[in-house]
Amino acid sequence: MNREQIVKKINEILKNGVTQVSIAKEIGKSEATLSQYLKGVYSGDVESLEKSLIEYLKKKEPLKHTREFIKTKDATCILGICNSCQKLEQLGLVYGRSGFGKTTTLRKYVDSTDKVIYIVCNSFMNANDIIKRISIALGLKGLVGSKDERIAKIKEFFKYNKGYLLIFDEADKLLNKDTISKLDVIKTIYDEVDGDGVGVILAGEQHLKTKLGLYFEMVRNRGDLEWELKGLSRLEVETYLQGIKLTSKALEELVMRATNDNNGCFRTLNRTFKNVQRLFEDRNKNIEAEEIGLEDIKSACILMPK
Fold it and tell me: pTM, whole model, 2 decimals?
């Protein structure tokens, strides 16, 4: 990537509301240095600066869809909420049926963005486990003292290291008899540093929002942004299948498997397609060149777990 291309891409990002100050901060340079480079008058180490800018641009490139991930409406909204919560230090809720692509999308955001801590929750976790997971992710290993003392050190970290996002996936698994103490850790970290550098995402199954209200009304009310997963549309299924030859009956079967109200979801579509792909490989056929028929899908589905 040459200087002209770099400047063009940076200017496009600036037009979308990102400031020179934030870009300079992310690449570890001063705003004056960035400004001089964009104007073509920078006389310092241009090679080093351009290397930093290219790395920055790679991280900001739009996520491309693959058969493992497509920019559905659900994915777009989840990514948007994560971005807003991180930038504006807000609390967001993401909830919906299993298999709709929530975790895949959250992981995409984690992989493409700096300063994101992703924690997968489970029903065995207690308040101390949550504190430990956060501290290890931040590099604050070996924290000692009471819960309050350790949380204070985490809050101090966020105070001086702004721009972080905490994502708690499968947060509904924290909602049991010990819910208050576990959510209290998250709430305390978020509240005390509100406006000082940390956003929070709570993601989980459909009952997440309802249970938050039952167990911890205050946390539910703090949800600045939320999204309930909608599932795939027909157009999104067709986007997933782009470049694949299918008979009309095969297409309708895959659309039904992906969108039906009972158990249709992205996970089912993805698993079905992968099994068709495996079936074609066993037959020494190229799935990109051969036409998929209804019988191929039925045969492949025998391989799927019930």
Answer: 0.72
